[in-house]
Design brief:
Number of domains: 1
CATH architecture: Up-down Bundle
Structural class: mainly alpha
Oligomer: single chain
CATH superfamily: Ferritin, core subunit, four-helix bundle
Radius of gyration: 18 Å
Order of helices and strands: HHHHHH
Shape: elongated
Number of helices: 6
Strand content: under 5%
């Protein structure tokens, strides 16, 4: 595919994200089935519901271009999910398997956080602020999922798998219910080189990567 301007690159990124999300929709039911801890099962199931909404948002963005979001395969996500399939084939203790599933899921989340952050920034640069709002909403939800997976791992799964507790988080603190997306304000300009050099993270300002 030839990319001649930022608009074409942006649409290519939307198609890549659409492929990634549809692959995740297919993979998550298997992860729900493979997980043993109730909190992890609930977390995966909730994120499956979220991911279906993420697919709908990307379809909505593509319709504004009068384009089909399908037609591309995200090879990066394909590789990450292949690793997840291999994990589920392991003959592992159920608690250890759950810890491994969280590790695989967080690799997926970090990939999506980077991808959505880039797409959001492109949308802002192209003055497609409604697209940017939808992409930021998904970006916030991906970061929230990553934080919840960390909480489940530290408070329940890792200790059950034999690790010393690394957090004071309690089970009651692990919330797998939806939260409202955050509307973003229109941005006058992209982050300056100085902002980036000083350590800002323009692609995911609220992501708490661990």
């Amino acid at each position: 595919m030839s990319l001649h301007d930022l608009g074409e690159l942006y649409l290519d990124q939307i198609r890549d994200l659409y492929s990634a999300e549809t692959q995740i929709v297919d993979a998550l039911p298997k992860m729900v089935e493979a997980a043993s801890h109730a909190q992890l099962k609930a977390g995966f199931q909730h994120h499956l519901d979220q991911t279906r909404e993420h697919v709908r948002r990307l379809e909505q963005i593509a319709r504004r271009f009068n384009e089909d979001p399908d037609g591309k395969t995200c090879q990066g996500m394909k590789g990450l999910l292949k690793e997840g399939k291999e994990t589920m084939k392991e003959r592992a203790d159920s608690d250890v398997l759950d810890a491994a599933l969280i590790a695989d899921a967080q690799r997926v989340e970090h990939y999506e956080i980077a991808a959505y952050g880039c797409a959001r920034t492109y949308a802002e640069a192209l003055d497609r602020m409604e697209d940017a709002r939808l992409l930021q909403q998904t970006l916030d939800e991906e970061a929230e999922t990553d934080r919840k997976l960390t909480a489940i791992a530290e408070s329940v799964v890792n200790p059950d798998a034999g690790a010393r507790p690394t957090s004071t988080a309690r089970l009651s603190d692990v919330d797998v219910t939806p939260s409202a997306g955050r509307d973003i304000e229109p941005r006058a300009a992209a982050p300056s080189r100085r902002d980036i050099d000083e350590g800002d993270t323009p692609y995911a300002p609220e992501a708490d990567l661990r």
